[in-house]
Write a structure and sequence with these properties.
The chain is an alpha/beta fold and 293 residues long. The chain is 28% helix and 20% strand. The chain binds fe (ii) ion (FE2). Fe (ii) ion (FE2) binds next to loops.
Length: 293
């Protein structure tokens, strides 16, 4: 008996019935998204001619991901990241015109404390000091008042506080209310590349695929202001290793920044630095909510 083939999956009754099974959802968006998901997953099964053994292997992967997931560790989020899905959602959901968005990553903490504009986040820890400053603007380069930045990064050992019990949970993270002209500044350290977690099924998949496990160095920043579309993004120091092979596909050309020498004596004195010290200057551009809809 010949094996049936479906060159156009929507023409087979299984796909048609499965898509239709979601069509009566109370939420029309749920019906649309689930219908499209079924359609494309069925097309994937058809095109790849997925074997039963491969299907079972896929189910085992998802089961292992569930078993290692807890309130501090989400293997499904990591799976989304390394498949490029997280970045693709960024790409399709961002309104045009502003600073590019990038992945949120797993280490954001909603409980970061508000600190004064111009704070020194470095305390006594190791790491090359970097003065990070800039302005929050609209797409016409006008300053946005009442903007806030939410900042976090890893320490000199490459770890975030969630990975390193020796760190204060608030280490190298803060929220800062910008001034009336949208300006912000803080003193931090140079961030470092790090690997995604490799002790779960996603790590095994990366190894089996001969893929890298590293992310380039980056600062995480969320920029928000009343009336504007919030921006979740990252800044990537130029010259970092893995800038061109980020395993979660988060790098955008417009987010690569130079860490440059700065000779500002007033800033040096304020932070107890010796000029020249390092600085990153970057202005963020937000899209107005009304123009994004
Ligand atoms: Fe990160």
């Amino acid at each position: 008996m010949n094996k049936p083939t479906f060159s156009q999956p929507l023409n087979n009754p299984v796909t048609q019935d499965a898509v239709a099974s979601f069509s009566k959802a109370s939420d029309p968006r749920l019906a649309e998204v689930m219908g499209l998901l079924v359609k494309h997953l069925h097309a994937f099964v058809d095109e790849s001619k997925l074997s039963k053994a491969e299907w079972l292997q896929g189910l085992a992967f998802l089961t292992a991901a569930a078993q290692i997931t807890d309130h501090e560790r989400n293997e499904f989020s990591l799976f989304s990241d390394i498949m490029g899905i997280s970045s693709m959602v960024d790409v399709v959901s961002q309104p045009p015109g502003g600073t590019p968005s990038s992945v949120l990553g797993p280490f954001h903490n909603h409980d970061s404390l508000i600190q004064a504009n111009g704070s020194d986040l470095t305390k006594a820890q190791a790491g090359e000091r970097v003065w990070l400053h800039g302005q929050v603007l609209d797409v016409h380069q006008n300053p946005i008042p009442n903007a806030q930045i939410d900042f976090w990064q890893n320490a000199d050992n490459g770890l975030y506080p969630a990975q390193d019990s020796a760190q204060d949970p608030q280490n190298l993270r803060c929220k800062i209310n910008c001034d009336a002209l949208g300006r912000f500044n803080l003193l931090t350290i140079r961030p470092h590349p790090y690997t995604v977690p490799t002790d779960g099924p996603v790590g095994a998949l990366l190894a089996a695929s001969n893929r890298g496990i590293w992310r380039p160095a980056h600062f995480h920043i969320i920029v928000s202001a009343p009336g504007y579309v919030g921006l979740v993004t990252e800044l990537f120091p130029s010259g970092s290793d893995y800038l061109h092979n980020d395993t979660v596909f988060g790098v955008r050309p417009g987010l690569i920044v130079d860490i440059k020498d700065c000779n500002d004596q007033d800033v040096a004195k304020r932070f107890g630095l010796t000029a020249p010290f390092k600085e990153v200057a970057f202005d963020f551009s937000l899209v107005q909510q009304t123009s994004a809809s």
